[in-house]
């Protein structure tokens, strides 16, 4: 199984267009301790040719152009065969608009995400005017939980399991601050031939027994690295929301993401992904970055290609 990180930043990217914080200013000056990042997306393949795009970020065009495996092999075509959305956040879905030339396109998402994309951000009805538009492939919500295994045609031999995570619905959603099951999922992606697996959860507001079970089972985890401190955006004077309010678990603190990852088996390869431009780990000289290293955690970066075999 192949995994390519197309975009490792949270919403806004790195640098964010209107931000002049220390990190954003540093990366604009091409300071060697900083690396630019596009917005949150990964691609998965069984054979290196047919790819499932997990989240369609506003930067998808740049990401595809930077990734030869995703380039067309015929007059018109793409390595991207299908799309899966883990939530309906702007940084995970807006790229569908840029993929309109590839319609019809199969899009896997839960009923809640599909509802938001028909109502508050009506991408499905809009794109129905482009050559067959987007074909919804439901990720089912079973009773009052989401734990649903399925296969997608472009990934032969790979089983995907969607599991519900505690996070938040997008700011434009009628369920903002009252999320229900299916607003946010994590993915457990398992190559049945090799037994190797990836757990991908770029939004993880609060650990649960269900999410911990999949994180524990995975060979590689890619989890929410939005903030270092819960009140980091307030403390820097760039925003009013805490990580908790947005549905993101901060890295530091006794109950933070680092402490959670410490509980996983020693052999687990650990990455933070969906990193906000305010996060001090983006500076490779920072204490935060050194702390990550001590916890055996890496920062995902754009273009990272893992082969799980
Ligand atoms: C999030 O991850 O919380 C969102 O991408 C934030 C946003 O859309 O502004
Ligand atoms: Mn986001
Ligand atoms: Zn910034």
Task: Find the structural class using helix and strand composition.
Answer: alpha/beta
What's the CATH C level? Alpha Beta
Number of strands: 14
What is the count of structural domains? Answer: 1
Helix content: 10-25%
**Strand/helix succession:** EHEEHEHHEHHEEEEEHEHHHEHEE
Radius of gyration: 18 Å
Distance between the termini: 7 Å
Largest sheet, spatial ordering of strands: 6-5-4-3-2-1-14
Question: In words, what does this structure look like?
Answer:
20% of the residues lie in helices and 22% in strands. It has eleven helices and 14 strands. Strands 6-5-4-3-2-1-14 form a seven-stranded mixed sheet. The protein has a seven-stranded mixed sheet with strand order 7-8-9-10-11-12-13. By secondary structure, the chain is of the alpha/beta class. Bound molecules: D-malate, manganese (II) ion and zinc ion. Zinc ion (ZN) binds next to helix 1.
Key features of this structure:
single chain; 309 residues; alpha/beta; Metallo-beta-lactamase, Chain A; 7-stranded mixed sheet; 14 strands; binds manganese (II) ion; binds zinc ion
């Amino acid at each position: 199984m192949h995994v390519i990180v197309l975009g490792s930043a949270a919403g806004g990217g790195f640098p964010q267009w209107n931000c002049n914080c220390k990190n954003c200013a540093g990366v604009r000056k091409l300071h060697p301790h900083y690396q630019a990042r596009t917005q949150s997306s990964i691609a998965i393949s069984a054979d290196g040719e047919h790819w499932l795009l997990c989240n369609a970020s506003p930067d998808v065009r740049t990401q595809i152009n930077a990734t030869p495996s995703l380039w067309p092999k015929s007059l018109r075509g793409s390595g991207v065969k299908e799309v899966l959305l883990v939530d309906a956040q702007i940084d995970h879905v807006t790229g569908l608009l840029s993929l309109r030339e590839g319609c019809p396109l199969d899009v896997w998402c839960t009923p809640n995400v599909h509802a938001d994309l028909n109502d508050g951000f009506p991408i499905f009805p809009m794109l129905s005017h482009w050559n067959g538009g987007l074909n919804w492939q439901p990720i089912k919500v079973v009773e009052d939980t989401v734990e649903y295994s399925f296969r997608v045609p472009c990934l032969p031999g790979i089983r995907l399991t969607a599991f519900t995570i505690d996070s938040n619905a997008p700011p434009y959603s009628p369920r903002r601050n009252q999320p229900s099951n299916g607003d946010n999922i994590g993915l457990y992606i398992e190559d049945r031939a090799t037994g190797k697996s990836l757990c991908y959860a770029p939004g993880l507001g609060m650990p649960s027994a269900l999410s911990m079970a999949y994180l524990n089972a995975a060979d590689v985890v890619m989890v929410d690295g939005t903030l270092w401190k819960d009140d980091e955006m307030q403390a820097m004077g760039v925003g009013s929301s805490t990580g908790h309010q947005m549905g993101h678990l901060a890295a530091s603190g006794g109950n933070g993401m680092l402490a959670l990852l410490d509980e996983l088996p020693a052999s687990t390869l650990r990455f933070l992904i969906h990193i906000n431009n305010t996060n001090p780990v983006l500076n490779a000289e920072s204490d935060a970055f050194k702390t990550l290293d001590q916890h055996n955690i890496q920062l995902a970066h754009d273009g990272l290609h893992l082969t799980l075999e």
